[in-house]
Amino acid sequence: MKLLDLKKLNTKRLNALSKSGIESIGDLLHFLPRRYLDRTTVLPIRNLKGQGEEVTVVGRIKKIQEAGYGHKKRLEVILQDDTASMKGVWFKGVHYFKRAFKEGEIYAFFGKAKRYGKYVSMAHPDTDKVGDKNDLQDLTRIMPVYPSNKAFSKSYITSKLINQWQRTILNTHQPPEFIPTHILKEQNLPERKEAYRMVHFPESQKEYKKARERFKFEELFLFELSVAKMKHTIIEKQNGHLFTEMGEYTTTFFNEIIPFELTDGQKEALADIKKDVRAGQQMNRLIQGDVGSGKTVVAIGAILMALDNGYQAAFMAPTEILAEQHYRTLTEFLDPLDINVRLLVGNQKAGLRTDILTDVEGGNCEVVVGTHAVIQDEVTFNNLGLAVIDEQHRFGVKQRAEILEKGSHPHVLVMSATPIPRSLAMTLYSDLDISIIKGLPAGRKPVKTAVRRDTNRQDIYGFMKSELADGGQAYVVYPLVEESEAMDLKDATAGFENLKSQFPNYNVGLLHGRLKSEEKDDVMQQFISNEIQILVSTTVIEVGVDVPNANIMIIEHAERFGLSQLHQLRGRIGRGSRQSYCVLMQGQKISKEGRYRLQTMAKTNDGFEIAEADLKLRGPGDFLGTKQSGLPDFEVADIVEDEGILERAKSAAWKLMDHDPNLQEDDHQELRKVFTPYFKEKARFYGMG
Ligand code: ADP
Ligand code: MG
């Protein structure tokens, strides 16, 4: 059967469907309702309270009128049922909507009911044409409402018509079932054809919910199956190096070198790692902890476990500044232990580079710290036992796979300060075990955050002066938008000049991405040693930088930053014993969303809360950068809300992969047909196809 075989489906409608990605009978059947009109949710107009409740009303259009003038022009549509009348109001698309409605037609309006004077109104309600009186009877059943658009309404494709087509398809067509029967049974989910019946012609709310659950499961199952397969074929659990010795390095470091008591969270993470590296299998562990929770010390602990057992370790960071900071921390901490640590970054001189590479290959260098330069082809390790990847969200999955290729399957420890919600972590890092460092080291004072405007600038500078006089230090951060790097740099440079004249008694430094590595390093060093008191910077300091004495951060044009980014930035202060202050400078033009971001920052210091707000604002794809994360855009499922289904899909997928990795059994043939192209696409994404 083809689409054109369906009654009332002409070429004009065929084109409209095609624009929405519906190219076949199967696609049309899988075109799912956006919502339902349920008799139980339809209210007589007289019963509307108008306090913002969400309701559906059904009535006849009595009058269509324009009101207001010029810019403020609006369209008002009076809808009347047997009990009273109400108003639908449009402020945008007045012209379009005016022509869309006709007096006398019966419509269902869905939206928030609010009372203004005599009338209850709905602003921009969802509208569905009910058609003739008979359709009203139809409201005694649950009516599906399908997504619509201009092309649909131009060719008169209504929800009712779509629903009729789907009935025909269901009567004549057997959609292939690709989820194995045993899994459907175990999950208590309806078979595919029945699920379509339940979603398009539900007899109760329970039915369509169950059907949607099945379609969500299906989507997540395929995804999890691909993650499982990826892991089976590429990042297979290897026999791991055994770090059985807790030797001199580790003991001395923990007992004598570190000047503080580990937090419980740090101890637990270290215990997890210790267990992993003695298990005989390759470790793949994610350490998640908010900014400032002290992940670096945990990483050093793991590195020393490798060294104690005669292995080398690599420590990768996403930026040069961070790599250099880690290099400094490591050399300082490990100096008494006489360990050879080397730094490998992008633009080092050829001679130096060769020297480092020889050192690494020969095994004389025990720890290499660096940027992604560490995983480049020409770097050969003598016996790499452990790779640590800091700020993992900055690296793609692909890079993690690459490091696994280095040496003979080193243990991998990845660290992330992005406190992504659990469901998301599970999906993204399905192949990782997760340790969470809860809590911050004792004695930290929460950063105080305020939102200010340009008019407050002199007050802020006055406050800064008193803090600087008291021995504090300050960051002043300018946004860097990639497209206009030059212009933003001008902002930072101008800010730098201005601050120099405002603070003649202090040293002001400037840090940005265009500086050479040595110059960056030099400026950072001066800030660390307090030769510079005010550091003007672009976002190059965003990640990981640790200068405990710095206690003030001014963020210019704070509304231009994302929430997670603001949290990262603010994480640079509040690291020592001083009370720290973050001032978010709000620019002239600010969107509603921008204001919400700043308010959220002022309200909380909790990384998880901030991440959740950010995730809600941006959606999962954008939150993590879909490209980087390898997370597909799911059609039906919502990986935050559908956490339970996700977990079930994951365990079913991994069980199946263990049992029949090549999908050769009879019961898995349909699945194989669907999964093979799906996986190919996925593998290509990881650069492994
Ligand atoms: P992050 O988790 O953001 O990477 P860092 O590892 O940079 O955090 O640690 C932040 C700061 O806290 C560093 O100055 C570090 O020396 C210090 N620190 C780490 N652990 C503790 C602890 N248990 N007690 C006190 N200070 C600690
Ligand atoms: Mg860090």
Shape: globular
Largest sheet: 7 strands, parallel
What is the level-2 CATH architecture name of the largest domain?
3-Layer(aba) Sandwich
Structural class: alpha/beta
Give, in spatial order, the strands making up the sheet with the most strands.
11-12-10-13-14-9-15
CATH class of the largest domain: Alpha Beta
- Please tell me the overall pLDDT: 87
Q: Which molecules are bound besides the chains? A: adenosine-5'-diphosphate, magnesium ion
- Helical fraction equals 40-55%
- Regions with pLDDT < 50 over 5+ consecutive residues? none
- Note the total helix count: 25
* End-to-end gap: 34 Å
How is the CATH topology of the largest domain named?
A: Rossmann fold
Q: Give the C-alpha Rg.
A: 30 Å
Beta-strand content bin: 15-25%
Instruction: Kindly give the count of domains.
Output: 4
Mind telling me the CATH superfamily name of the largest domain?
Answer: P-loop containing nucleotide triphosphate hydrolases
Q: What's the number of extended β-strand segments?
A: 21
Walk me through what this model shows.
The protein has 689 residues and is an alpha/beta fold. The protein folds into four domains: 1-33 and 142-170; 41-140, OB fold (Dihydrolipoamide Acetyltransferase, E2P) (Beta Barrel); 248-437, Rossmann fold (3-Layer(aba) Sandwich), CATH 3.40.50; 448-604, P-loop containing nucleotide triphosphate hydrolases (Rossmann fold). It is 42% helix and 18% strand. The chain contains 25 helices and 21 strands. The strands form four sheets. A seven-stranded parallel β-sheet has the order 11-12-10-13-14-9-15, sandwiched between helices. A hairpin with a 6-residue loop joins β2 (51-67) and β3. α16 (422-428) packs parallel to α24. The longest helix is centred in the N-terminal third of the chain and has 29 residues, at 205-233. It binds adenosine-5'-diphosphate and magnesium ion (MG). Magnesium ion binds at residues 295-296, 390, 544.
